[in-house]
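Students often ask what a 'structure token' actually looks like in practice. Rather than answer in the abstract, let us consider Restriction endonuclease, a protein of 326 residues. Its sequence is given first.
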Amino acid sequence: MKFKSRNLRAIAELVIGDKEFFPYRSSSYITQFFEECDLDFVHDGSTRWHWTSERLEELLQEPQPAAHALPERFVHVLRVLMHKSDAEPNDPDRSKALEELNKPLSREGYEAFYGDDELLYIHHIGTKTISLAANPHRPFTPKEIEKRDQLITYLSQCSEDELIEAVLLPLFRQLGYHRITAAGHKDKALEYGKDIWMRYVLPTQHVLYFGIQVKKGKLDASGVSKATNANVSEIYNQVLMMLGHEIFDPEISRRVLVDHAFIVAGGEITKQARNWLGGKLDASKRSQILFMDREDILNLYIANGLPLPEKALPTTEPECDDDIPF
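Now compare that with the structural description of the same chain:
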């Protein structure tokens, strides 16, 4: 990956503190900064911005973890640079510093923002791919836990279509999938076992295609399906159809097979359900199946800082004036 020299210099000037809202760093403090970033760069006494720009360029040459994602160590440097503990008195929430960082980043097609965990994240403006993606297994903040509880309530009440449109589509877009297409439920004959299909571009520019079968409630292997539960045997044929049926990709104007099948449930996917389906499928198809249940959805949704669906937002009751007579 390569940034324009102008933009590298602008970021380097933020690192060394030649711009307002960033602490000034002399030679020894530049070395100390990179030590905090777990890098062994030692400033050699040359022009500060030029030397720092060269080090940033080195980091950009490292492998990209995914298409449209910045190299991990480069993102880590920006995350240390923008840590809120280094806020200047005239910019306590670092919003002005964030504006300065986004000037060069936006010219390269990226945007930095703070997540609910107060850490810096960077996404590609066009695809929304997050560099150094959020860890869904980290401890959540109290604010994130509250948001998670609101999403749990929504998942318990929403329809299958709302689960797809309001939760899954924004989530998969945020995770870097492309051409996300929902089949809808108006014409079941056209679904061929898929509620959604999408594709993912690898750093090598090879493309993987995914089909997704969505169930609103719990997915189990019981003999009889309950009102809110789905039996895994009910989706067995849908999975076979998904893996065996071609989809048309308009960008390349040809039909392609689905490489992997996601089985997504708004509730729990029991271990018995996973084992039953694994036993029914042959070894080649078994490796193509990916599961995502409520816990996975919740953790990914919150960790990636997605806004709650509109219907999940808490409503405020209108205040009454007790002094007004009825």
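One point worth highlighting: Confidence is low (pLDDT under 50) at residues 185-191, 317-326. Ask yourself how you might have guessed this from the sequence alone, and why that guess would often be unreliable.
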